[in-house]
Amino acid sequence: MTNATRTRVLLVDDDPDLLRLLALRLTAAGFELETVSNGVAALSRVAVFRPHVVVTDLRMDGMDGLSLFDALHEQYPTLPFIIMTAHGTISDAVSATQRGVFGFLSKPVDKNELIALVNEATRIGLSNTTAVTQDAWRRSILTQSPVMEELLSQAQRVAQSKASVFIGGESGTGKELLARAIHEASGRADGPFVAVNCSAIPENLFESELFGHRKGAFTGATRDHKGLFRAADGGTLFLDEIGDMPKSFQAKLLRALQEMRVRPVGATEDEPVDVRIISATHADLDKAMAEGNFREDLYYRLNVVTLTIPSLAKRPEDIPLLATHFLRELAGTYGERVKGFSPEALEALVNFDWPGNVRQLRNVVEQCVALSSTPLIPLTLVQRALRDEPSSFLPLQEAREQFERNYLIRLLQMTNGNVTHAARLAKRNRTEFYRLLNRHGMNPALFKSFPDVSP
């Protein structure tokens, strides 16, 4: 069996000695293997490892083998399950197979019987079009929530059309992840996906940033800039926080969307573009329209299809899955000394309201991982992290980058894009200052004054 076609087996057992023994047997038989010691960890690992077969113990602390099967069968109905137990009875086997479990093994597990059953399951796992391939477009979205599954089903359907999509939902729910998934599921997947946060663009730079500009269009425009619309040509343009777009630019955006043509600042002719627009905001656009701050005709042009991401509190079954995923993701930064959450800690996470949604959950997990002195994160540490209201704090690196970006924008605005003057105010040499600008993708020429071309 070649590496390209090796069967991937996920082995789940809370007995470390048996887990090690079975892992040796399966590896020696040529299978690609991942091992975890409990059901909660398995939920996260499946989303990343994408096994062809799951072999799990029946009796485990916390989530048992059948509960794990039920949780995964919702999302991966064709994924074969083999359940092992030292307490096996005929009624257990009948119950398991009636629920869709592929096979049932009694402990002590016979090596040849195990390998034969995994090989038999492989013929099913590899012959069907399973989640391993069909879910590639949504691989960044981890969920076992029926509510989210329905949303993703709608997203996949709308991805096949040309309709503009508006994504609603609270901050931190993952609107950009959904936008990218729609792009990946569409016929434009081979084209670019360009994301822009409208709240991060100074008002006088909107037209140049989105439509581009010609060399010499204004003082400091020393080269052509094609703009984000043309950068996304043939693909998808994601306009995040569309509610923060200035009213002065909204008419121009509407015209561009109606005609699929843009005119760079300083140009005399329009240029055609082919982009699919996905927009999002956490703001109340109905209120913004009522107050005259958002054009109604633009709203309906953007809002052909609406997808609203549910808050994390409305999909609590995703909390253990996401928390375990974040814990493993953070192992690269903090090491693998922390293995999971105590049952009480996990229960506290599930029962919390999560006003900051998935982003807040990740911050809480990071704080717990950073401070934990034990392999299992205790309840007290989770309670402390929740009391600290991490939703109001950004991770240190993200906060530093946000401050640096805003600081540079203010400097360039104050100095009218004069790098020498801005570097002097920042007490940095020009070379270092240019390096900072490049890191944040900032062009000082865009901050030089040019005539207001608003209608």
TrEMBL record:
Domain of life: Bacteria
InterPro entries in the cross-refs: AAA+_ATPase, AAA_lid_NorR, CheY-like_superfamily, Homeodomain-like_sf, P-loop_NTPase, Sig_transdc_resp-reg_receiver, Sigma_54_int, Sigma_54_int_dom_ATP-bd_1
Modified residues (4-aspartylphosphate): D57
GO molecular function, one term: DNA binding
The keyword Transit peptide appears for this protein: no
Nucleotide-binding is among the record's keywords: yes
Domain Sigma-54 factor interaction: 141-370
Keywords: ATP-binding, DNA-binding, Nucleotide-binding, Phosphoprotein, Transcription, Transcription regulation
Coiled-coil regions listed in the entry: none
Domain Response regulatory: 8-122
Gene3D superfamilies assigned to the protein according to its UniProt record, in alphabetical order: 1.10.8.60, 3.40.50.2300, Homeodomain-like, P-loop containing nucleotide triphosphate hydrolases
PANTHER family, A to Z: TRANSCRIPTIONAL REGULATORY PROTEIN (PTHR32071), TRANSCRIPTIONAL REGULATORY PROTEIN GLRR (PTHR32071:SF116)
This protein's name: DNA-binding transcriptional activator GlrR
Species this protein is from: Candidatus Methylocalor cossyra
